[in-house]
Structures are given as C-alpha cells and as structure tokens.
C-alpha cells in the first residue's frame, strides 16, 4: 500500500523518541518526530503542528525597535510597570478595538502571554485564602496547565462541547459553587478548536465570576480573528467580544505574537481592569505588604520577580505597532486574514477526503476560518489519527492534550502556503484512497 | 543647622510613602523617596541606591540586534534552548574567561539573571525529594529572596563576615548537614559588599556542595570586575574565580546587564555543568517525565513555561558581544573599570568624612574597588544612617535588606561621574562638620 512513510519507519521513530502514548504527545515531541522522519528520508512533512506565525514581522515594530537601539535605553532597566508610551498606547488600543476603558496603569508589558499567564496564576491564586484552583474552559492551550504543574497549583477543567449557550451556566456553577476557584481561563477565539464564545456565553461567565469572586483570565492571542464579523475598525463597533463587558474581575492577555507576527520578540500586554487593579486583598498584604494593592503587587512583587521588566527596545516596537493600529495605519486584521484563506483551503481538502470538523459549531452558527481548526476521521481516536496522518507525512497535535474529550487533531493553518496546501491535498487524497 | 533637606520635610515624605522601617526600605522605596524630595524642592539627590549601568550600551550588541531586525526572526518563536550561535559563543566565552569546558547545550539564554535564578530555584528545589531549602551566603541580592517568597519556598542564610577563609567550612556544614539544602547561592564579586570569595573559599563551597549534593547557583553579574587581579585576557590565565573548578553541581549566571551595559534588553546566560545537565533525577521524572533529564527538563518544562524563550533579536546581540569579547575585540573589562575609578573617589570622600568601610577585607587583603561598596558611620544603625544621609541629599540602600548583620549602607558607584562626585564630596563635608 502506497504511503508517504513506511509504517515500520514511523513506529521505530516513535519508539526512539519514547512517545509511548501518541494521544498525549506534546507539540515539541510531534515537531521532533517530523524532523526525525525528514532527516531519515529527505521527504518533507506537512507541518500543521506548531502555531508559528508565517507572515512578515510588522515593519512598524521593527523600525521602532531599531530606532530605540540607536539610543541608550538598551543600558537602562525597563520600568517594572512598562514605559509610559506603551502603557498609554495599550490603553488606547483597548479602547479602539475592544471599546473598553482600562487605565494605562493597568496595562503592563510582559515577556509574552506565557509570562502573563504565569504571573497572573501566581497572584490570582494567592489573593484570597481558600481560592487556590484554576478552572480551564477547555479545549485549551496545554502550556498553561504545564505552568500550574511547575508552580504546584491545582486545576480542573471541562470540555465546553456539550455546554454551549445557556447550558454553560450550570456547568460553570458546578465548578464555581464549591468556592475554591481563583481563576477561570480560556482563549477566544479558541486554541485549538477555533470556536468563539458568544456575547451570551461571555455574559454568563462574567456574571458567575462576579458572584463567586473568581478572576477571569481571558487569552486574546487571536485577537479580532473571528473573520465572520466586521471587526477591525478602530473606535467603531462592532468590537472584539470580551468578558470585560460583564464583570470587573478580569485580566486580558494581548499578545503581539500572532496579530503583529511578532512571536520572536516575546512581548504581550496584560490589561487588568481598573477595579481589580485597585482592589486590596488582605492575603496579599500579609504576604507582600503594600496594603494588599492588587496592581502594585502584581507589578512590583510578582512580575518584577520573574523577569524584572520586558525588553526595553521591544516595548518601543509594541507601542509603535499599537499606535499605528489605533490610528488606522496598520491593518493587522487584514494581514492575519491570510490564515482564514489558508484554513478554508485546508478544510476543503480534509472534508473531501472524508474527514469531519470536530468542533464545528458555535451557538449562533458554523465556526469561522482562522489560525486553527479541529478534524477527526471516522472512529479513529486522537492517538490513532495522529499516527495515521504521520504515515501520510502530515504532522498535527492531539486534541487529547488540550482537555478535549472528543477524538481528533488540531490543525494549524499558518504555514499552509500554496505549495504546502497542494502537498497536503495530494497526501489526503492518497489517505482517502487507502481508507476506502 | 545647615542640611540639604529639612528634617521635617524628609520625615513627612518617609511617612507619606509608608516607609515605617527605614532599615528595611527596598531599593524601589528609596528611589521613590529621592524622587519625591527632588520634586518638592528642586534639589537633586545624589543617587547611590539603584545599580543602574551608566555606560553606553554595547554598540556591538546593538548593531547585531538591528541587523537581526532586518530579517524575519522577530516573527519566529526563539528555540526554547536558545539559538545555536549564542549557545556556541556562550560556551566559548566560558572557556575564554573562566577556563571552563561547558558544552553549548548547557548554555541557555534567559530573560535576565532574574529569570535565570527564578527558574533555577524551581528546578533545584524540585529535583530531590526532601531538599527544599535555599541557602544564601549573605550579604546578597534581596530580589532573590523575594523570588522564593513568590514561589513559597523556604530559605535560610548566614552573614559571611565572621566566617571568611577556612572558618567558612564549619558554618556551611552547620546548614548543609541537615540534608535539606537544595541550592547554595551567592554573588561573586559580591552585591552589596564587593567582597570576593577566594579560591580557597570556593573550594570549600564546592567540596561541601558535592558532599551534601546541593547545587551551587553562582551569580556572576559583576563578572571579571575584581580589578585587583589581571583578568580579562581571553583564553589566558588568570581566570575569574569560580566554584566550577571544585564541584560538578553548579549553575553559573552570566548577565549582560553590567558587563555589556545591556540591562534594558533583559538577557543573561545560565550555564549548567555538563555533569548536572545530563544527570537524571527520579523526582523530576515523576513530575515532568523526560526520564528526569535535568537539562531537558530545565529548558522545556521549566524555563519554557516561564517566558517561552528569550527575545530573538537580543540573542543575536548577546552572541555578537560574546564573540567580540572572546576574540579580544571588545574589552568589556576595560569599560567597566570606570566603576572602580568612581568607587575609589567615593570611598576617599566617605573616609575623609569619618565613615568606615563595613566589609573591608577579603582573607587575602583589602577589598577592591568596583560597582558597590558598604559604608557605616560610628554607631549608627542601618536605618538611622539611611535617614541621616538623606538629610544631606544622599540616597543609599540599607545593608539590613541584604541579609547582613552589620550596620551600614550599600553605595553604588555607577552614576558617580565627576559632577556627582563633587556634589557627594561637598555634602559629606557638610555631614562631617555637623557631626563633629
């Protein structure tokens, strides 16, 4: 039977990399497997695994960084709270694209959203005694659970698939009513399933976060990439959906990695609501002093202890990109819509080969096209499908690693240019012929 | 009595900033106090508080960053383990200036040594069950203790003042013999006291670290700045003193902040010994899998979860600076010797005003001049002296915040150019007249 890679070769590579349970293989392991197979055969693997931006990094950001490097700021410790111009532009960006008022003081640069969630987990889990568990609205980003493993914090999760719309309320309440949830986390649009929470669902999350005094950590890594809606016009509705309209208990994470194709520079903004920023927590005062002031402690006693600020010249780059976006001079949404075009082509190829979209619907209709989507095949488990696709030279990520209870894989559209899409299509056709 | 600031004014500012115990005031608080007094009076404060590099950031690093910004690496996630050219240059730099062989794989870029120590504390405290305390050879850098507060880890410390030379053995053994110390940490040259551990002392630390299986975290932030010795010739002895010659249980922290005046860009290298990097720990395997391999887990399961790599273009800057240093084309030691000249002038002014150097000797002679030194005055406590110096417009840091049992303050020489030194000298003369 014609395949791209010989079954024995793939299984030997899997054994050599000690990937005993393919259903739980990490993105890094899948990447290593793809690299090993190509090294042994010279045959390229179609890489749908890692979510690496494939567009040019924003020229606006790079030019601003280069100019900052002509000054002496590279010598000077960045302020713990961020440089003023970046704080101001972040606040303005949040107003322009989310329609929210968040004071500059609550907009804090971090070394990528990974540092943002790490630091947020720490302070949110420490601010109220007895609230020491994180709740994941899954499927989600495996790294955030790994961060809790590093810290030794507890977490729980549920797969949202069967709890969309008004049904979300009961499921959330089941977790929150015990009173020990400090933090609710999800990404929207969703990594890996690309589902988008509706305003109704966000309202439920917000109301319950307020009632049970949990802090919502909203990961907006794929900001404005719900391409079904006419977003992207600064200071004009409609705006990116956000829980911030329904509770004061929130921290938003705005990463530069995908929206400005700036993943290499490690920068994001965490935006803390004014109410939370200025709230005082006795447990924080006992631990850190400073009158228990959430914002000051987050900046000076938590984030400062992790990285001592964010790369100084990169902050100037981020400020310039945000300013250009708010001024209507940098249409980041138009740039990233390339991912939607690529996803549409990939989905077509998968559906024609007999695959199905696993998370296929939002309460208000079919999901859109964007950076990720999820596919399954017949009764294959996630682990079986991962291996089967690799026999056809296609590398993906198991949905089981994302907290999903469904069987299937995550596909990333970012690297799928015309050539890769052609290769993917031909390989899926071969897959379909062999599975007839 | 003539002073620079009125006593009532200073005490009101202290009250307003809620600095109830001046002996425990942080660097940030002292900086705020100085800023407030200048804002209220227009009179500048002589700033000996923060250790901010005042030299030009390395042009070699900045040019390399600018060139990297012309490529597309800003879009691409940096490899978790660091870019190959930086790993190779780090290994070569360690050979050139420390005379050590550390494989490139063990040389890992981090977002400054602050992230390096944070991540190292995590893995060192998790790698052996029952070893869950950090031992500080004090005086030391207060931020490292604050990091343990964030993580909820235990620590203990001793002031080395009365335990120099062979006496160090008994004191170390007193702490290590209980068997629960995971990590021994110190900086050399020392922040705040500028004492330098001798080869004999480092040998004692190394031998005991091996015997009691503790990992030494050696902070080399002031690398090669023991200006008493003819260091700084690549690939030729004498080399920077290091514990690495006396144990395999070590992690070195090499920050770019001071040696290349690159504090703004947040980059350092943690260099893990080959033996430790490749050692397998059952407790790490239970927690993270990966066969418990120290190096792989440190990179992929710990550091990656904190920042997901280090700013991509800054890694190119660091690689270029290290290469130029190893090639003998960037004499970073000659640049930083400016700090020694400044410290010499400051010490002269303090001694003439009746002050004394608190940590004045190493076992083999008087301490040298460099980035910091410690001064005391008669029977003043640290807190009293902090306040008294501020009445004369001089801002410093209390030794009590550094784990020192001695009374006095830390003085930083970095900002003391000719003008500032003149101001400091005149104010100390006034201080002396008023205390006659």
Entry keywords:
homodimer; 436 residues; alpha/beta; Aspartate Aminotransferase, domain 1; Aspartate Aminotransferase, domain 2; 7-stranded mixed β-sheet
Question: What features would you describe in this structure?
Answer:
Chain A is an alpha/beta fold and 436 residues long. Chain A folds into 2 domains: 7-55 and 332-434, Aspartate Aminotransferase, domain 1; 59-326, Aspartate Aminotransferase, domain 2 (3-Layer(aba) Sandwich), CATH 3.40.640. Chain A contains 16 helices and 15 strands. In chain A, the strands form 4 sheets. Chain A has a 7-stranded mixed sheet with strand order 2-8-7-6-5-3-4, with helices on both faces. A 4-stranded antiparallel sheet of chain A has the order 9-12-15-14, covered by helices on one side. In chain A, helix 3 packs across helix 13 (312-326) and helix 5 (112-126) packs across helix 12 (294-307). The first copy, chain A, starts with 6 loop residues before the first helix and ends with a helix. The relative contact order of chain A is 0.18. The mean pLDDT of chain A is 97. At the A-B interface, helix 3, helix 5, helix 6, helix 12 and helix 13 of A face helix 3, helix 5, helix 6, helix 12 and helix 13 of B.
Summarize the structure.
2 copies of one chain form a homodimer. Chain A is an alpha/beta fold and 436 residues long.
Q: Architecture of the largest domain in chain A, according to CATH? A: 3-Layer(aba) Sandwich
Multimerization status: homodimer
The biggest sheet of chain A amounts to:
7 strands, mixed
CATH topology of the largest domain in chain A: Aspartate Aminotransferase, domain 2
Q: How many separate domains make up the residues of chain A?
A: 2
Query: What order do the strands of the largest sheet of chain A run in, or round the barrel if closed?
Result: 2-8-7-6-5-3-4
Percent of sequence in beta strands of chain A: 5-15%
Query: How would you classify the helix and strand content of chain A by structural class?
Result: alpha/beta
Q: Separation of termini of chain A?
A: 12 Å
User: DSSP helix count of chain A?
Assistant: 16
Mean pLDDT of chain A: 97
Stretches with pLDDT under 50, minimum 5 residues of chain A:
none
How many strand elements of chain A? 15
Q: Give the CA-based shape of chain A.
A: globular
Briefly, what CATH class of the largest domain in chain A? Alpha Beta
The CATH superfamily of the largest domain in chain A bears the name: Type I PLP-dependent aspartate aminotransferase-like (Major domain)
Which two chains form the greatest contact, residue counts included? Answer: A-B, 61 and 60 residues
Helix content of chain A: 40-55%
């Amino acid at each position: 039977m014609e395949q791209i890679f010989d079954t024995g070769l793939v299984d030997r590579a899997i054994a050599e990399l000690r990937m005993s349970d393919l259903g739980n293989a990490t993105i890094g392991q899948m990447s290593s497997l793809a690299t090993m197979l190509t090294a042994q055969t010279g045959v390229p693997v179609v890489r749908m695994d890692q979510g690496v931006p494939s567009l040019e990094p924003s020229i606006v950001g790079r030019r601003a960084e280069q100019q900052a490097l002509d000054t002496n700021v590279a010598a000077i410790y960045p302020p713990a709270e961020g440089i003023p111009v970046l704080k101001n532009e972040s606040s303005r960006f949040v107003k322009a694209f989310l329609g929210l008022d968040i004071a500059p003081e609550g907009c804090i640069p971090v070394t990528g959203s990974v540092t943002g969630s790490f630091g947020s987990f720490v302070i949110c889990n420490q601010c109220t005694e007895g609230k020491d568990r994180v709740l994941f609205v899954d499927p989600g980003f495996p790294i955030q659970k790994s961060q809790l493993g590093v810290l030794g914090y507890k977490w729980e999760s549920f797969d949202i698939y069967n709890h969309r719309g008004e049904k979300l309320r009961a499921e959330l309440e089941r977790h929150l009513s015990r009173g020990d949830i400090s933090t609710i986390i999800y990404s929207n649009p969703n990594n890996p399933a690309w589902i988008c929470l509706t305003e109704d669902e966000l309202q439920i999350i917000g109301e319950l976060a307020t009632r049970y005094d949990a802090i919502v950590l909203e990961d907006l890594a794929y900001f404005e990439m719900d391409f079904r809606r006419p977003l992207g016009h600064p200071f004009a509705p409609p705006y990116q959906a956000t829980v911030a309209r329904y509770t004061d208990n929130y921290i938003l994470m705005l990463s530069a990695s995908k929206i400005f194709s700036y993943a290499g520079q490690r920068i994001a903004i965490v935006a803390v609501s004014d109410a939370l920023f200025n709230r005082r927590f006795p447990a924080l005062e006992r631990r850190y002093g400073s009158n228990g002031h959430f914002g000051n402690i987050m900046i000076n006693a938590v984030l400062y202890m992790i990285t001592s600020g964010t790369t100084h010249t990169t902050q100037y780059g981020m400020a310039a990109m945000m300013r250009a976006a708010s001024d209507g001079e940098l249409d980041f949404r138009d740039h990233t819509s390339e991912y939607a075009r690529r996803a549409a082509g990939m989905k077509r190829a998968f559906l024609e080969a007999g695959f199905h979209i696993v998370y296929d619907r939002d309460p208000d209709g079919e999901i859109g096209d964007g950076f990720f989507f999820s596919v399954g095949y017949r009764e294959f488990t996630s682990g079986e499908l991962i291996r089967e696709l690799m026999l056809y030279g296609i590398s993906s990520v198991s949905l089981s690693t994302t907290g999903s209870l469904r069987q299937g894989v995550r596909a990333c559209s970012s690297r799928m240019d015309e050539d890769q899409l052609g290769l993917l299509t031909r390989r899926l056709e071969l897959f379909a012929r062999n599975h007839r």
